[in-house]
Automatic annotation (TrEMBL):
Belongs to the GSP I family. This is Type II secretion system protein I. One of its GO terms (cellular component) is type II protein secretion system complex. Pfam families: T2SSI. Component of the type II secretion system required for the energy-dependent secretion of extracellular factors such as proteases and toxins from the periplasm. It is a single-pass membrane protein. Keywords: Cell inner membrane, Cell membrane, Membrane, Methylation. InterPro entries: Pilin-like (IPR045584), T2SS_GspI_C (IPR003413), T2SS_protein-GspI (IPR010052).
Length: 111
C-alpha cells in the first residue's frame, strides 16, 4: 500500500511539472506571435517611408496598425543626422495595453 502511495506521489509531481512546462511553452508561443506581428508593423512603416521617395519630416508621430486582428500603436520618431541627406528613424510598436513590444531603428537616405 505504501508503495502505491509513493508511486502516486511521483506521478502527481511529474504531472505538475509537465503542466508547468506546457504552460511555459504556450506563453512563449503567444509572445513569439505578438512580437512577429509587431515586427511586421514596424517593417511596414519603414517600407512605407522608403516608398515615399522623400526624406521623412523631423518629429514624432503615432499611427495605428492592425495585423491578424491584433491592434498595435506605432510611434515614429524621426531625427536629423550630421549628414543632411540622412534621417534616423526610430519605430516603437506598442500593444493594446500600450506596453512596448518591438523597437526598430533605421537610417533613411535621400532618394
Amino acid at each position: 500500500m505504501i508503495e502505491v502511495l509513493v508511486a502516486l506521489a511521483i506521478v502527481a509531481i511529474t504531472l505538475a511539472a509537465g503542466s508547468r512546462a506546457a504552460e511555459t511553452v504556450l506563453r512563449n508561443g503567444d509572445r513569439f506571435a505578438d512580437v512577429t506581428l509587431a515586427q511586421w508593423c514596424a517593417d511596414n512603416t519603414l517600407v512605407g517611408l522608403r516608398f515615399a521617395q522623400q526624406l521623412p519630416g523631423i518629429g514624432r508621430s503615432e499611427q495605428g496598425c492592425e495585423q491578424l486582428g491584433q491592434a498595435y500603436t506605432v510611434q515614429l520618431n524621426v531625427q536629423s543626422t550630421p549628414n543632411p541627406s540622412f534621417r534616423r528613424v526610430d519605430v516603437r510598436v506598442l500593444d493594446a495595453e500600450q506596453a512596448p513590444v518591438v523597437s526598430v531603428s533605421a537610417v533613411l537616405g535621400r532618394p
